[in-house]
Amino acid sequence: MSVFTDPALGLIDGPFQPRLAEQSRAKAWYGWAGYIAPAVLDSVEFEYFALRNQASLFDISPMHKYRIAGPDALAAINRLITRDATKIEVGRVAYCVWCDEEGMVIDDGTLFRLDDTDWRLCCQEPMLTWLLDATWGFDATVTDESDTVAGLALQGPTAFSILDAAGLDVADLKPFDLREVEPGLMISRTGFTGDLGYEIWMDRDAALPVWDRLWEAGALWGLRAIGYEALNIARIEAGYLAAGVDFQPIHATERLHRGKTPFELGLGWLVNFDKGHFNGRRALLAARDAPRTLLLKVDVEGFKPATGALVYHAKRREVGHITSGLWSPTAKRNIALAHVKASHARQRPGNLWAEVYTSQEGQWSTRMARLIPLKTPFFAPPRARATPPGRI
Amino acid sequence: MTRFDAIVIGGGINGLTAAAVLARRGKSVCVLDQAETLGGMAAPGPDGAPRGAHLLYNLSPAVRRDIGLGNRDWPFRSAPLPSVALSPDGRHVVLRGGEATNGDSSAHPDADAYRALHGRLAKYGALLRQLAENAPPGFDGKLASRSALRQMMRLGWFGLGLKRLGRDEMRNFLRVLLSNAYDTILDEMPDGPMAGLLAADAVRGAAAGPRAPGTVFSLIYRMGHGGEVTLPMGGMSALCSAFADAARNAGCQIETGVTVTRVLIEAGAACGVETADGRQITAPLVLTSTGAEVTCHLAGPQHFDIEATRRMRNVRARGTAAKVNLRLSSLPAVIGLSRDLMAARLIAAPSATYVERAFNPSKYREMSPNPVIEAVIPSVTDPGLTSGDSHYLSAIVQYAPCDLEGGWTETAKRALAKATIDTLATYMPDLPGQITASEVLTPVDIEAQTGAPGGHWHHAEMSLDQLLTLRPANGLGRYALGPAGLYLCGASAHPGGDIMGLAGRNAALAALASEGRK
Ligand SMILES: Cc1cc2nc3c(=O)[nH]c(=O)nc-3n(C[C@H](O)[C@H](O)[C@H](O)COP(=O)(O)OP(=O)(O)OC[C@H]3O[C@@H](n4cnc5c(N)ncnc54)[C@H](O)[C@@H]3O)c2cc1C
Predict the structure, then answer these.
(1) How would you classify residue A210: left for phi > 0, otherwise alpha for psi between -120 and 50, otherwise beta?
(2) Domain limit, last residue, from A95, A123, A144
(3) Record: contact B302-A101, CB cut-off 8 A
(4) Would you say residue B70 lies in a domain?
(5) Hey, which of A140, A325, B71, B403 has its CA 20 to 30 A from B137?
(6) Domain end marker among A144, A167, A195
(7) Which residues of A278-310 are buried (b: 16+ CB within 10 A; e: fewer)?
């Protein structure tokens, strides 16, 4: 008999926890926005290769989700984000960032236009107070749906086939499309892996039957539940940024100058100066042509992942650092995201080096690894965009 | 559709000043005020009696010069008034400048202490005035730009001024500036009417008692132009006409009875206003003498950064000063005071502790049962204002919080009138029988008439967190409000309110300067 008394404090179960707990062999849990979440369920290799070669199921319920609704919702959102929200049609999703008054990125996320006056914003950081501030003076309400809406990311080449087998028709969904396929069940063709994939949204109370339905349909298609570690490999391969890793959400920083503008994060394409005022516009107009650093996708010489390495020019002058890096099993490259001083990133990109530490069976040494900046994504398979998706 | 170079919303003291300054620099200017009478809070009542503000002590010579009224005199005469600290026992204190005597002209035991304190505050006031006459420090251009250099020079002057005080005085200034009036006053004199008067002056119009930090600042602010209190001859009409005429003579077009319902913004810049009668008037500069939050609503929050709207709506502006205006059949008498002194500024605040106690109920959204009153009977000094024996008494009554529990119903207003009259009657027992008409203006009424947030004297509390660069809020301290060409020019901007005009003048100069940079 156990003598442990649960203090009932700390991490709480998410909507899919009974299924995740059942499948977890590694018992490798971590806290995500207050929820218990799997880092790995079995082993990261199995999970990663399921994602790239079959299909993977990842619980995204801990993401923060906010409903913004009302006659002025569009106007409020257009002032909030840097993109032109008027161009987002009903039934579409848009990746977006939003900035503080100084033009520093607060967070990034996906914005779902559910209806003319009804939107959902999905993001990593808690955003309720900011959204309440952002809608003050507008005829729009903000509802925190973080705990009431459950989400699953079904990603990988067989994802479409699984939905099809589950009786969910999404053949005509283009990337960033969204549809309520059954009452209370919404599917968007979105994801954080750069692959073919969908995100499935439902009421928290309806979560487990949906999981089971996908699970049964996925038996023949190699579906595997995965944890964050596998997903993280995929998102770096896709070149996506992780808040708190590849940029510091400005509201979470206390020190000066820790923020980044969208231009400094390679997200300048998300900024629309022609749409009227939006938060940080005045600051961004001034910052547009004067980025302090640039985010580079780089190929790192050798095999050793360069996460956390400092970046040097000509092996001598420190000009930046690497925030995410790994050996990409699919691209077969040692890839990384590097923040580099703008002057060097632009004018002298050919002479950049990362200082990596290597251990050969316990013997440590330091090595300068050449960085080759890449213009194209590390990994962008055509299947991610094909509509209707291919059946495997 | 009509075109101007600049539109000024509000024809109060600050709006008229801003308009005149702009027009004198060659701008075509249109002033729009929702009221029929110009002057805002300083506007006279229909009978010529002071309705809101009633006395002058902070009129600015820099404003007079910049609105074209010359270097010497205002176009109206004004009569200096002594102040009387009323005492229930009839031993009133009469203050003329730094001199204090008893009501019967005999020497007052604390006269030396009063003279020393008054002198010190006036010296500090002159120093603060240098800061008041400029936009608050802050560099919006490059550090080496001319405007930055000019600002550094000014700050240098301020620093030099501080140095000239001498080391001990400078220390004292910096110590006292942030401290509370109650302790500062009672360090120098025993509690009584003299201390009460100073304490009342320190909190007039404020949502604070004299024990609140920063109240010494308010006391010094009053002394920015020497501290002498005067009455404009010809009443508030003479004062308001002087400002209105200055604006007109500079070429401004002034329209009264016109409410601005929208500020128009296009491509991130102000481009005009829309009025209640459906007209659109265009101009690349819009200066507003109402509050920042109100302006944000007029323009639409989508044109402002989210942080700015948060700060605007958190500006504290809780008006606590009400007006009780009485018509009297004859001149009342104060026991122990000569008839001459009935012309004085009469302060009912028999001790500093009384003032603090009067403040307490307002914390709980109640009015003071024993209010602090500043009363003046202008018709004694300026007999032309009334006919026959009749007089009017103008009283500023505190504390009457704008957010009174239960609201300012007719019953509540009657209760305030009664508390005021009862309090005055302790000194003027015959007063109740002499009243022929009365008017009560609560902060809610004042807000309705002028648009001033919370009906607040200064449109925004003059507390340490809302002064200088932080006035009315962080990021709004340099008059510019967000969209290009939109400026705050009313009392909520630096340096603050009172019948002074510096906020309007500074805002106009800031608008002109940024045009120059374009
Ligand atoms: C009860 C009371 C007594 C006072 N007594 C004194 C005193 O004795 N001595 C002293 O020095 N100071 C006194 N003051 C303070 C002083 O009167 C004010 O600080 C000063 O007058 C403020 O001037 P302003 O021009 O900034 O604003 P206001 O006088 O408030 O003027 C604002 C103007 O804008 C207009 N307006 C607002 N919104 C709109 C709109 N949408 N469209 C068109 N017009 C609009 C209003 O009608 C108003 O005329 C007193 C204040 C109060 C409340």
Answers:
(1) alpha
(2) A144
(3) no
(4) yes
(5) B71
(6) A144
(7) bbbbbbbeebeeebebbbbbbbbbeebbbbebe
**In-domain check, residue A200:** yes
Same domain, A30 and A11: yes
Alpha carbons A343 and A339: distance in angstroms, whole number: 12
Q: Is the pLDDT of residue A11 over 70?
A: yes
Other Cβ atoms less than 10 A from the Cβ of A347: the count is: 10
Are B440 and B326 part of one and the same domain? yes
What CATH number is attached to the domain comprising A300?
A: 2.40.30.110
Residues B416 and B349 in one domain: yes
What share of chain A in percent tops pLDDT 90? 94
Which residues in chain B are closer than 8 Å to A79, comparing Cβ atoms? Answer: 301-302, 306
Q: Tell me how far apart the alpha carbons of residues A224 and A55 are, in angstroms, rounded to a whole number.
A: 6
pLDDT on residue B141: 47
B253 is a domain residue: yes
CA-based nearest distance B214→chain A, Å:
29
As a whole number, mean pLDDT of residues B147-175 equals: 71
C-alpha count within 13 angstroms, C-beta hemisphere, residue B67: 34
Given B296, B302, B305, which is nearest A101 (Cβ)?
B305
What does the buried/exposed string (b/e) look like for B460-499 if buried means 16 or more CB atoms within 10 Å of the residue's CB? bbbbeebbbebbbbebbbbbbbbbbbbbbbbbbbbbbbbb
Find all residues with CB under 8 Å of A58, minimum gap 6, and list them: A152, A153, A155, A225, A226, A227, A228, A231
The reply to whether residue A76 touches residue B302, judged by beta carbons under 8 angstroms, is yes
N-to-C CA span, chain A: 49
Q: How far is the CA of B269 from the centre of ligand 1 (A)?
A: 27
| Residue range B253-287, pLDDT digits in tens | 999 999 999 999 998 999 999 999 999 999 999 99
- Separation CA B399–CA A273 (nearest Å): 49
The Cα-based distances of B495 to B137, B177, B188, B490 in angstroms read 12, 15, 28, 10
Q: Is residue A109, in this structure, part of any structural domain at all? A: yes
Please give the residue range of the domain that contains residue A32.
Answer: 7-62+147-226
* Domain assignment present for A74: yes
- Domain containing residue B52: 6-77+234-316+450-517
Mean pLDDT within B475-501: 94
Task: Decide: B207 and B320 in contact? Cβ < 8 Å.
Answer: yes
Ligand 1 centre distance from Cα of residue B394 (Å):
17
CB B334 within 8 A of CB B434: no
A138: closest CA of chain B, how far (Å): 8
CA distance A93 to A112: 4
Note whether residue B248 is domain-resident: yes
Whichever domain contains B294, its CATH number is 3.50.50.60
Domain C-terminal end among B399, B421, B448: B448
- Among the partner residues B303, B310, B483, nearest to A133 by beta-carbon distance: B310
Q: Does the distance separating the beta carbons of A136 and B313 come in below 8 Å?
A: yes
- Has residue B120 been placed in a domain? no
The total number of structural domains in chain B stands at 2
Q: What is the rounded distance in angstroms from the CA atom of residue A278 to the CA atom of residue A223?
A: 42
Q: Which residues contact B410 (CB under 8 A, 6 or more apart)?
A: none
Amino acid at B495: P
Mean per-residue pLDDT for A147-153?
98
Write out the two tokens for B449: 């008439």
Indicate the number of domains in chain A.
Answer: 3
> Quick check: helix, strand or coil at residue B88?
coil
- In contact, A35 and A61? CB cutoff 8 Å: yes
The pLDDT, as a whole number, for residue B29 is 98
Domain boundary among B430, B448, B466: B448
φ/ψ of B289, rounded to 5, equals: -105, 15
- Is there a domain that residue A272 lies in? no
Same-domain status, B65 and B41? yes
Contact present, B82 and B94 (Cβ < 8 Å): yes
